[in-house]
């Protein structure tokens, strides 16, 4: 970099009384910024200025003043300003931030965060007994917050959340009921009003918030379909809040299997008001059903123990329905529509090979082999030769 002695093309360097050198420059924001540290030599300070100039030319420069914001302040603003978050998601993010992130990293400035610090934080959570699932959720939240800081707001040069596998969860495989077990469970509900609730949750693969928000007008006159028009979420201090479904694809119409339509009719006749907006599944007083009331009313623990699946959760009914639907050879797109998912990822999970499906594949392959063997035999006979069938190992 040719220049006259004492003059620089970019930035300034001055010698401090301590003998060290301070570098500064005029940033794209029109303000003068000092290097975060001083340098032992003029050449070291100059090298730093060359690095900064290159970042500005490549449009990779980040404002060091903005990088001084505390992580807790930035994350709280990120949650408040994030578009399209459902109330339950806002609550979850705020809880994760307050419980697992802020106590450990909240006071750290964004510009000071680095990958070793993130790795150490994650390891500390696990050492303190936080489950892998909750640790992964907290890590994913932090990664999303810092992704915005790096890619959108340009506060930091890169996302420091680069810990391999830290955002992955490996939960235990959830149980899948047989069709017989679903009907057995429905018949064991302590109150008859919950029989159709169990059947519809399983065979229409509805989420808790979706099925509790179904109204009479959301079920076809012939009970051939159920429409998901909204969903309930339960928030601390606010109770049940009615809103849109979990995702854009969640607003859907699901065909009801003919085998359970009689149960739906019987439920509508006995337990549901005649008005179109009457809730289909309620407690004894006619109010929308709440989770805290469901287990005691149905004697759920006794019922699931009686069918041989003592650790069954209500959400496992949806898991069962999705698994059974995948076994019908439905396409990924059709499964996505029925399940209410925007992404094919969940649908593809349910299309993983099961022992039943694998046996069917084996039978199909066996048929192909048999046809090829007999075709060869027939061709040999046409040539006037004895066609010996050679066993295929």
UniProtKB/TrEMBL annotation:
Q: Does the keyword Transport apply?
A: no
PROSITE patterns listed in its UniProt record:
CB, TYR_RECOMBINASE
Domain Core-binding (CB) residue range list: 69-150
**In this protein, which residues make up the domain named Tyr recombinase?**
172-363
Q: Which SUPFAM superfamilies match?
A: DNA breaking-rejoining enzymes
Q: Which InterPro entries match?
A: CB, DNA_brk_join_enz, Integrase-like_cat_sf, Integrase_catalytic, Integrase_recombinase_N, Phage_L5_Integrase_N, Tyrosine_recombinase_XerCD
Q: Name the segments for region: Disordered.
A: 373-393
Family label: Belongs to the 'phage' integrase family.
Protein name as it appears in the record: Tyrosine-type recombinase/integrase
Organism for this UniProt entry? Allokutzneria oryzae
């Amino acid at each position: 970099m040719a220049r006259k002695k004492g003059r620089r093309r970019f930035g300034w360097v001055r010698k401090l009384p301590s003998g060290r050198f301070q570098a500064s420059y005029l940033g794209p924001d029109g303000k003068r910024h000092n290097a975060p540290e001083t340098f032992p030599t003029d050449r070291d300070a100059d090298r730093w200025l060359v690095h900064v100039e290159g970042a500005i030319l490549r449009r990779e420069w980040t404002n060091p003043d903005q990088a001084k914001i505390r992580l807790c302040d930035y994350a709280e603003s990120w949650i408040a300003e994030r578009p399209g978050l459902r109330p339950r998601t806002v609550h979850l993010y705020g809880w994760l931030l307050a419980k697992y992130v802020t106590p450990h990293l909240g006071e750290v400035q964004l510009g000071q965060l680095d990958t070793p610090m993130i790795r150490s934080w994650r390891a500390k959570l696990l050492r303190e007994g936080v489950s892998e699932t909750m640790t992964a959720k907290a890590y994913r939240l932090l990664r999303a917050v810092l992704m915005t800081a790096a890619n959108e707001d340009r506060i930091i040069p890169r996302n420091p959340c680069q810990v391999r596998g830290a955002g992955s969860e490996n939960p235990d495989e959830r149980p899948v009921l047989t069709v017989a077990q679903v009907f057995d469970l429905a018949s064991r509900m302590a109150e008859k009003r919950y029989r159709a609730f169990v059947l519809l949750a399983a065979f229409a693969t509805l989420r808790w918030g979706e099925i509790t928000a179904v109204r009479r007008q959301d079920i076809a006159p012939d009970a051939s379909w159920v429409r998901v028009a909204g969903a309930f979420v339960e928030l601390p201090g606010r109770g049940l809040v009615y809103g849109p479904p979990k995702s854009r694809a969640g607003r859907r119409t699901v065909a009801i299997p003919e085998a359970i339509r009689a149960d739906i009719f019987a439920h509508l006749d006995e337990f549901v008001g005649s008005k179109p907006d009457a809730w289909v599944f309620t407690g004894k007083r006619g109010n929308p059903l709440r989770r805290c009331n469901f287990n005691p009313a149905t004697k759920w623990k006794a019922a699931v123990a009686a069918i041989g699946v003592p650790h069954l959760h209500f959400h496992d009914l949806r898991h069962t329905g999705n698994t059974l639907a995948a076994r019908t050879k439905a396409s990924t797109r059709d499964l996505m529509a029925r399940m209410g998912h925007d992404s094919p990822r969940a649908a593809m999970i349910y299309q993983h090979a099961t022992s039943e499906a694998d046996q069917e594949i084996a039978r199909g392959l066996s048929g192909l082999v048999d046809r090829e063997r007999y075709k060869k035999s027939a061709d040999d006979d046409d040539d006037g030769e004895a066609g010996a069938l050679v066993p295929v190992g």
